[in-house]
Design goal:
The protein is mainly beta. The chain has two helices and ten strands; from the N terminus they run αβββββαβββββ. β4 and β5 form a beta hairpin.
Length: about 190
């Protein structure tokens, strides 16, 4: 009897694992935008794009999905080169070309038909903190044209708020706000089976 139970459990595990399909981020249509208050006078914006990542996406059971994303710290763009250089200096990141910002999901709580809270480990400046993304599934379906035409595609938006001081980059807070608002929008295409 025990071998039969074990075989059934293994088959069930394989079935669950197979349900989540691998999607890779479309770097040309995925962005992370951040904003913070500068001395109460203005809101300053910056972004990351061109980053890499994958989603193991289970359409039938989204809680069984996972997200893994990484981006070079130095890929930050703020629209002003001197500000970017300051952010990469020892006042903030002291970043090298090899430094990455990563996010790896640890759990997903489905909150509605197209919404979920994605909890994960955000690592920045060699410090890891748990953050929660308030995520919305915008759309799924075949890519409509071009070389990717027909490829299953999914699009998501998400928001969160972090304290930069939690990651060791809290210089000039609270005059320059410690709170950083983060907006994420990504497209991901189903990877070819290997």
């Amino acid at each position: 009897m025990k071998p039969l139970l074990l075989a059934s459990a293994l088959a069930a595990s394989a079935s669950l694992a197979a349900a989540a399909e691998r999607y890779t981020l479309d770097a040309s249509h995925s962005q992370v935008i951040f904003s913070y208050s500068h001395l109460g006078f203005s809101t300053t914006f910056g972004m990351f794009s061109g980053f890499e990542g994958e989603i193991m996406f289970d359409k039938d059971n989204p809680a069984n999905s996972s997200v893994n994303v990484s981006m070079p710290t130095k890929s930050m763009f703020t629209g002003w080169e001197a500000r970017e250089e300051h952010f990469m200096s020892d006042d903030f990141f002291g970043a090298t070309d090899e430094d990455l910002i990563t996010f790896t999901s640890t759990s997903i709580e489905v909150t509605g038909e197209d919404t979920a809270l994605i909890t994960g480990d955000l690592t920045m400046n060699d410090i890891t903190q748990s953050v929660v993304l308030d995520a919305t599934l915008n759309q799924t379906g075949p890519y409509p044209f071009g070389p990717q035409q027909g490829t299953p595609t999914a699009g998501f938006d998400a928001t969160t708020t972090i304290l930069r001081s939690d990651f060791g980059v809290g210089a000039f807070a609270p005059a320059v706000s410690d709170e950083v608002e983060v907006q994420i929008s990504i497209e991901a295409l189903q990877a070819e089976a290997s």
